[in-house]
Write a structure and sequence with these properties.
The complex is a heterodimer of chains A (about 575) and B (about 375).
Chain A: H1 3-9, H2 34-63, H3 73-108, H4 117-125, H5 127-140, H6 153-156, H7 159-189, H8 202-234, H9 247-281, H10 288-302, H11 317-329, H12 331-345, H13 354-377, H14 379-385, H15 389-419, H16 425-452, H17 466-496, H18 555-559, H19 571-574, H20 583-586
Chain B: H1 7-25, H2 38-69, H3 87-114, H4 122-127, H5 140-147, H6 152-162, H7 164-173, H8 175-179, E1 203-210, E2 213-218, E3 223-225, E4 228-231, E5 236-242, E6 247-251, E7 256-260, E8 266-270, E9 276-282, E10 294-300, H9 302-325, H10 334-345, H11 349-364
Parallel strand pairs in B: 1-5, 4-10
Antiparallel strand pairs in B: 1-2, 2-3, 5-8, 6-7, 6-9, 9-10
Helix pairs in contact in B: 1-2, 2-3, 10-11
Classes of the chains: A mainly alpha (about 575), B alpha+beta (about 375).
């Protein structure tokens, strides 16, 4: 199908009502509008995030004292298993890719919708049933073999809960494959004319890398889980040593997906941060190409590092060295991104609003996770801390300090575009402060716990760790409370918040060039690129739209470093300023 | 933006380096080191900690300075300077992490090697047969199976099965060891200090993990026990396996960990060098009472160790005499055997019940 045909077909049959007429009921229906689906994803996954958070709080309540006294050890294992499964498969992955990916990608590339709108709806509607199924497992004895579900434990412990876990994760995996396919085709084929790959906003690059990773890695997880289901329910021995199977093979297959899954969780957030920092720093993103290509590099390298989860499993000695080196190399593209973000911030005019604070919090916290990531890549040290609280701390710094901080930042940043209303800044700052304090109180001491000798996934532990664990639990409670200001703020602002206008942040990417919320087919007329997505600071102007178009022809500017990001404006369009990028008309 | 090179930057850099160097050595995050391998790991960690502290301070410092110095002033609606990139700077900070990673990889490799990670003689030493290490070469195992005249894996397996001290327990408790096609597969091991590479371990202990206890058998002396005793200063080889689910043998003070995998045998070599009693944890989730799966490793002087061995042998022979009258010792399951150790290991009645049910379940297989 050609690009033109895809664009033509994107909205046949047409979507439901215009945003102005939209009511809350549409968000519960089978809409094919990518914006409705994106918000459906975000709200659904946020609800699961809250449920996962409740489970985490229960886990920390149990661990506040050394004895196993709050819940039984079996229930404890179910709590952390379901907590992890929800947070990964029902919150971070679908919120980052499905939620923001769906809402933003067509807007950022000037498309009317995703390439396959109905497939998009199907992908979303697999999530609520899969999530409810997982939660229903508590009625029959929830899975308790950890989110990794290693055999033989997963085969011999409670069958019903484990089977439910497998089918739930399989469904969620299928959903993410469908979504990934859709993103790939959309980004590849549906960009507006004039937007080459090097003129794309960086979030699109990130989603491109993520989708490729999803398509390559997720089927392997599906394969592993289907074989595990056979072992569990039919009595085959793929992984069961009792019949001659090899549990290590499962670990290879599982981590072939689940390590890339970390990048599926963090790459979209890298993209969001690359969108948010330039807008609120009022500076172009530093090193556009470096950031864009490092996403692709991370995506590729992410596929060849999985065995670093198995350094203590009895992998051959030489293999450990190979995976140690590939794992460490990932620090290079990641480092490039971090330094580029810092250079973007440096010397700007920072608007320290909630979105920016969370974005800077993201950089700050993610770096700690990244540094401990290099540490655990080193085989001799990993052998000491593998499966301990050090790893728990590391992964939470990456996935909470990284992904969740980034998702919060994105929510504050794009809330006006999604709802047409502003969020309350004061409450946003309270939210940020509580999150930052609670998060660090909760996860920083875990590094010490792990190195001193506390294994992970234990309901009871040596009393000498009691004091640190109490601090960690208090941090967890603060973290739990920190979601409340956000929740109230989001709901209240959605209903009563001040009108946002089309472009409250004076952003230059295309989504800000249409109304808030955007109309059904996104743009009143076909958008035209007059500047690159990050051309801040050219002349004394606040928004792109106030610049005379001839500015783009200015020899000083076109010779500047941004020139590659500029498309020549269409003279026919330039003759009609009202048709340019939307905003002046909408004012 | 130019690469900053003024005097302030220099001073900040010096302070940063000093702070990093100090904190890298004084973080106080690691427990005491009780094996010869531990200081190697600690050295690596201290170096990583030094580098991490430096990078951490640079990033946080930049963020905080930016937040203060570059925050938007009231009524200032202008944009920042349109800086899109700076090739020398970008090359510099691609090169810095690349070099750091390279240095860390080489250092880690050295440490790993010093711990015996890549000792080509490791396997020949383990089994005291010079041809054994060929089994670990890629393709060798397959070739052996094809010719079928000398299946090295099978030999290893048979030897493991013949092991006098563990055979009784294992044959009874580990059905998969009879059925598994790859019985006796030994996976890569680590832990053999440089000066001792190429020499046979001075003490061999077979370690079996089972829900929710560790079982240690000393093949040379026939002792079976629930807590590990090792003499200080002697190289110890652990043959680690499991009979139900995955477990992981971990002594934080030794800085060593190895998964115990049913159907496989993994090896761990270390030299304890600090007297004391340390906790052996199970680090791999193994079921409801995973957190309680602990025992002790006692590092004692060689004399104390010898007298302990003698003591255990006396107890064992006495018990055997008693049991010859009362019960057939071969009929004792691991859980029954462990009951005697339950009290001292702090295992409660719920756990024992669980242990029995899991034992029953296996019996029904």
């Amino acid at each position: 199908m050609t690009q033109v045909q895809l664009q033509e077909n994107a909205n046949v049959p047409a979507h439901g009502m215009e945003p102005a007429q939209r009511n809350w009921r549409e968000y519960f229906g089978f809409s094919t509008d990518h914006k409705v689906i994106g918000i459906q994803y975000l709200v659904t996954t946020f609800i699961f995030y809250l449920i996962g958070g409740v489970l985490a709080t229960a886990v920390r309540t149990e661990l506040a004292t050394p004895e196993s006294d709050f819940v039984s050890p079996e229930v404890y294992n179910s709590l952390f298993t379901v907590h992890a499964t929800i947070m990964i498969f029902l919150w971070i992955v679908p919120a980052g890719t499905g939620g923001f990916g769906n809402f933003l990608i067509p807007l950022l590339i000037g498309a009317k919708d995703m390439a396959f709108p109905r497939l998009n709806a199907v992908a979303f509607w697999m999530i609520p049933p899969a999530g409810l199924l997982l939660l229903a497992s508590f009625l029959v004895g929830a899975p308790g073999a950890g989110w990794t579900s290693y055999p033989p434990l997963s085969i011999i412990s409670g069958k019903a809960g484990e089977a439910i876990w497998i089918f739930s994760v399989l469904t969620l995996g299928t959903s993410s494959i469908l979504a990934g396919l859709n993103f790939l085709v959309t980004i590849w084929k549906m960009r507006i004319p004039g937007m080459g790959f090097n003129q794309m906003p960086l979030f699109c690059w990130a989603m491109l890398a993520t989708s490729a990773l999803t398509l390559i890695a997720t089927p392997v997880l599906a394969g592993a889980l289907i074989l595990l289901a056979f072992d569990l329910l039919v009595g085959t021995s793929f992984f069961n040593p009792t019949g001659g199977g090899d549990p290590i093979v499962y670990q290879h297959l599982f981590w072939f997906y689940s390590h890339p899954a970390v990048y599926i969780m963090i790459l979209p957030v890298f993209g969001m941060i690359s969108e948010i920092l330039p807008v609120h720093s009022r500076k172009p993103i530093f090193g556009y190409k470096a950031i864009a290509y490092s996403s692709i590099a991370i995506s590729f390298l992410g596929l060849i590092v999985w065995a670093h989860h198995m350094f203590t499993s009895g992998t051959p000695a030489w293999l450990r060295m190979f995976f140690m080196i590939t794992t460490m190399i990932i620090a290079v593209p990641t480092g490039i991104k971090v330094f580029s973000w810092l250079a973007t911030i440096w010397g700007g005019k920072l608007r320290l609003n909630s979105a920016m604070l969370f974005a800077m919090g993201f950089v700050s916290m993610f770096v700690i996770g990244g540094l401990s990531g290099v540490m655990v890549a080193a085989v001799p040290f990993d052998i000491h801390v593998h499966d301990t609280y050090f790893v728990v701390a590391h992964l939470h710094y990456v996935l909470f300090g990284g992904s969740v901080f980034g998702l919060y930042s994105a929510m504050y940043h794009w809330f006006p575009k999604m709802t047409g209303r502003m969020m309350n800044e004061a409450w946003g700052k309270v939210h940020f402060a509580l999150t930052l304090i609670g998060f660090n109180l909760c996860f920083l001491p875990m590094h010490k716990l792990g190195m001193e000798g506390m294994p992970r996934r234990v309901a009871q532990y040596d009393p000498k760790f009691a004091a640190i664990n109490l601090i960690v639990s208090i941090g967890a409670y603060i973290l739990a409370v920190s979601t409340l200001p956000f929740l109230v703020n989001a709901i209240w602002s959605w209903m009563y918040g001040p009108e946002a206008g089309d472009n409250p942040w004076q952003g230059l990417t295309l989504e800000w060039m249409t109304t808030s919320p955007p109309p059904v087919e996104n743009f009143e007329s076909d958008p035209v690129l007059a500047t690159g997505p990050y051309d801040y600071g050219y002349g004394d102007r606040r928004t792109q739209v106030e610049v005379p178009l001839s500015d783009a022809k200015d020899p000083v500017l076109s010779a500047g470093p941004s020139s590659v990001l500029r498309a020549d404006p269409d003279p026919a369009v330039a003759a009609h300023p009202d048709d340019r990028q939307g905003e002046s008309k909408n004012r | 933006m130019n690469i900053p090179s003024n005097i302030t930057t220099l001073l900040v850099g010096i302070v940063l380096t000093l702070v990093s160097l100090w904190y890298g050595q004084n973080h106080g995050l690691l427990p005491v080191a009780a094996s010869e391998e531990a200081p190697l790991v600690d050295g690596l960690f201290n170096m990583m900690m030094t580098i991490s502290t430096g990078l951490f301070l640079i990033v946080q410092g930049t963020l905080i300075v930016s937040a203060i110095r570059f925050r938007r002033r009231k009524d200032d609606n202008t944009d920042g300077p349109p800086v899109h990139g700076n090739v020398p700077l970008e090359i510099l900070w691609t090169a810095i992490p690349a070099v750091i990673v390279l240095v860390l990889a080489v250092y880690s490799f050295e440490v790993y090697n010093s711990m015996g990670g890549l000792d080509p003689m490791a396997h020949s030493v383990a089994h005291m047969k010079s041809d054994k290490h060929f089994a670990k070469m890629p393709g060798a195992a397959i070739a052996a199976t094809l010719t079928d005249t000398e299946n090295i894996n099978q030999q290893a397996s048979d030897e493991a099965m013949q092991d006098p001290a563990t055979a009784a327990v294992r044959n009874k408790e580990i059905p998969q060891r009879r059925d598994a096609s790859d019985i006796g597969v030994t996976s890569g091991r680590i832990g053999s200090s440089p000066d001792k590479q190429g020499t046979p371990p001075e003490l061999v202990v077979n370690v079996t993990g089972l829900q929710f206890a560790w079982l240690f058998t000393y093949p040379d002396t026939g002792i079976t026990t629930g807590e590990l005793h090792v003499p200080a200063g002697r190289q110890v080889l652990l043959n680690i396996t499991a009979n139900d689910v995955l477990h992981a043998f971990w002594v934080p003070e030794f800085r060593l960990k190895q998964d115990a995998i049913p159907g496989r045998q993994n090896e761990l070599v270390f030299t304890p060098n600090r007297l004391g009693t340390y906790t052996v944890n199970c680090a791999e989730l193994c079921g409801a009472y995973h957190g309680a799966m602990k025992t002790q490793v006692v590092v004692e002087t060689p004399e104390e160790f010898d007298s302990w061995v003698k003591e255990q042998q006396e107890v064992a022979s006495k018990e055997a005499l008693d049991q010859a009258v009362a019960v057939n010792s071969a009929d004792r399951s691991a859980s029954e055997f462990l009951a005697t150790y339950a009290e001292e290991m702090g295992i409660n009645s719920t756990m024992l019940e669980q242990l029995h049910t899991s034992g029953d379940r296996e019996a029904h297989h």
